[in-house]
Amino acid sequence: MTDTSRLRSGPALLLGAVPRLITRARRNPPPQNVTLTVLLSVSALLLLGGLVVNEAVFSPSTQVIPLLVGGLLLGRHALRRLLLFVALSLVWALLALGLRDARPGGMVAVAVTGLIAHEFARSRDETGLGGLRGDTVLVELRSRLELQGALPPLARPWRAETVLRPAGGGPFAGDFLVSACAAEGHRLDLALVDVSGKGVEAGSRALLLSGALGGLLGALPPSEFLPAANRYLYAQDWDEGFATAVHLTLDLRTGAYAVASAGHPPPAQHDAGSGRWSLVETGGPALGLVPEVTYPVERGVLRPGDALVLYTDGLVEIPGRDLAVGIDKLLGAAEHLVARGFEGGAEVLVDRVARLANDDRGLVLLWRER
Fold first, then answer.
1. 206 and 330: one domain?
2. Residues of the chain predicted below pLDDT 50
3. For residue 137, is it left (φ>0), alpha (ψ between -120 and 50) or beta?
């Protein structure tokens, strides 16, 4: 290997090591002063490399490396020190090189990287979480919502599937599911909830609300669940302090069920005897709007071959059109499930009805095998 190729491989090796260092820092974030010292040293070495070794290999534009890492690991005040050091280093390098490496594109890249890094650090400081801890908290939030959305295992002949998709393919959603088996495993209680808003704000409210509702579910008589959830949400006094919900109680021995709705679109039931889908009309105001509400309950029975679909309005809401149009589209897609079987049907319904919808979508498909 020639001297030039060795020199050119230096920045490449450094860049290759950056992802591994960041991964280790994510798992065990180092102290801010240690991180700042290391990044200042890297910046100084890059500067000296350009002045002493080869200015074409270690050009001033390589300062984007410590800036990028600093934007991920440092707080705002520590990053400002790094930015000041890099700025002074660039001025010194350009003067020492006689402005021979004053490439406008490279300087603009360093400046833009510094601004982006500072914005990352400022945003994390506002959450009170330094380094990558803020990102880790958000990942844990999403994982907890996904874990809480899992239905308890059901013994045959009962089967169930759930789909929860955030708006625009993002990582966080305001739709969530809570469920529990009560009465020694003979009763299934579940609630599909749609919290107002989107993105991280809706996801954080969904996490708080899912924990509270998960504690209420199964601990109260079915008729008291939605009123208790309404009182809890009303007491939170959030700016966007409302949510819609549908609550289902199913006797796993007889197939008898009771369903109540708080501002939620009506569930759909498939009757294997007639081969038709019909809506289970329920009514009641959304959670959190008024302090005391009574929610009417509709009852029915799921016989062998029957199915029930619960869903949020993001699945059937079409801008500028009546909600009934979206519900008809859902029922039309559900008709195709009867011939193919309900296995994997939850994903099929969401893909056919609202694959690219700009809203959170939640769906539960529950059926009783013959």
1. yes
2. 1, 4-10, 131
3. alpha
